């Protein structure tokens, strides 16, 4: 088992994972925290967070017989990406850095499955199942227990050598591998940069996020109108938000990815709001094929850009674009265009 554990790290590195850890399935403490978070209603309309009973903190309910969870991380920040300039230019569209390239789910799940297959060549009757942000499982808690990092005040998993710009994945297995030591030390200290930088003040306190105020929730998860009082804080962010990571000092140690699939597509790391607002639904579906952005849907994409245009500097071109688009869109998007026009005239 010790030899297999070392091979696991070697195989993981060969498959593009920067770190591999192993832990057990004991998550009761994290399950209690989740239940308290849900009781406060901080999950908003993400009702799936409350589904599946206690399955989220009992991995063996997902795969009966599970004894260990192999947790992996993969860097995603593309080289030569300027995190700040796009945010500072209100005429440009900000898309969360993780979403600029290919959808990570398929890539990482495929690599995890290959990792499981390598184990299967060494062990008879091996059971395993791969997950990548696609099942009711507490992946950050498992990664913390597997020694990959600590859960920061911004609720992200942070690693001293790599910051937090990485994806996580899990391989559940019935193999009793040696376990890694949990990452017990919290290196956030007195720093509260991530809490203070949040544009919509979504943090109730350290380690507690009210998702209903989070820009990632508002632009991706939420269907329907965006609360008026939160629209100004969204700025030019049209899909997700990275501010609590940008503000984290540990991300000065983040490493650029070597995965070409995470390279920005269609120059979305430099696109203007007016350029993206001109996309019709066919163009949206064509341009976002195989990308995380497609998840938000075309209507919400237009809604988000309308809000961002309302936050842009007053411009006749912006007003003309909003007025031109208004008759072509749904009542939901019209509502946000009307708000944007009022902001522009104001």
From TrEMBL:
Catalytic residues as annotated in Swiss-Prot or TrEMBL: 133
EC code: 1.17.99.6
How are cofactors bound according to the entry's free-text note?
Binds 2 [4Fe-4S] clusters per monomer.
Catalyses which reaction(s): epoxyqueuosine(34) in tRNA + AH2 = queuosine(34) in tRNA + A + H2O
User: GO molecular function: any one?
Assistant: epoxyqueuosine reductase activity
- Coiled-coil stretches noted in the UniProt entry, renumbered to this chain: none
Q: In which pathway does it act?
A: tRNA modification; tRNA-queuosine biosynthesis
Q: How does it assemble?
A: Monomer.
Per the similarity annotation, which family is this? Belongs to the QueG family.
Protein name per its UniProtKB record: Epoxyqueuosine reductase
Q: What is the protein's species of origin? A: Oceanobacter antarcticus
Ranked from the top, the taxonomy reads:
Bacteria, Pseudomonadati, Pseudomonadota, Gammaproteobacteria, Oceanospirillales
- What gene, per UniProt, encodes this protein? queG
């Amino acid at each position: 088992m010790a030899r297999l554990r070392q091979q696991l790290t070697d195989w993981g590195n060969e498959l593009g994972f920067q770190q591999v850890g192993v832990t057990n399935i004991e998550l009761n403490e994290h399950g209690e925290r989740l239940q308290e978070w849900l009781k406060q209603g901080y999950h908003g309309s993400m009702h799936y967070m409350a589904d599946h009973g206690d399955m989220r903190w009992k991995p063996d309910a997902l795969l009966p017989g599970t004894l260990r969870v192999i947790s992996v991380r993969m860097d995603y920040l593309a080289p030569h990406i300027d995190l700040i300039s796009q945010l500072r230019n209100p005429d440009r569209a900000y898309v969360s850095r993780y979403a600029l390239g290919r959808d990570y789910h398929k890539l990482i799940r495929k690599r995890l499955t290959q990792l499981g297959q390598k184990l299967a060549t060494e062990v008879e009757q091996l059971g395993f199942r791969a997950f990548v942000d696609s099942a009711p499982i507490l992946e950050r808690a498992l990664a913390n227990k597997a020694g990959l990092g600590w859960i920061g005040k911004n609720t992200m998993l942070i690693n001293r050598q790599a910051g937090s710009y990485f994806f996580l994945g899990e391989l559940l297995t019935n193999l009793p591998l040696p376990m890694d030591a949990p990452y017990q030390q919290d290196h956030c200290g007195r720093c509260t940069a991530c809490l203070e930088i949040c544009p919509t003040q979504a943090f109730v306190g350290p380690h507690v996020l009210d998702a209903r105020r989070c820009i990632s929730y508002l632009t991706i998860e939420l269907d329907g109108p965006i609360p008026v009082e939160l629209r100004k804080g969204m700025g030019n962010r049209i899909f997700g938000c990275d501010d609590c990571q940008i503000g984290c000092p540990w991300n000065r140690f983040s490493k650029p990815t070597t995965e070409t699939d995470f390279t920005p597509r269609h120059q979305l790391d430099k696109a203007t709001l007016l350029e993206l607002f001109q996309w019709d639904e066919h163009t949206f579906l064509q341009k976002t094929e195989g990308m995380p952005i497609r998840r938000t849907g075309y209507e919400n994409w237009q809604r988000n850009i309308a809000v961002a245009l309302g936050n842009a500097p007053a411009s006749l071109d912006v007003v003309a674009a909003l007025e031109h688009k208004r008759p072509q869109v749904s009542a939901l998007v019209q509502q946000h265009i009307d708000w944007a026009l009022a902001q522009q005239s104001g």
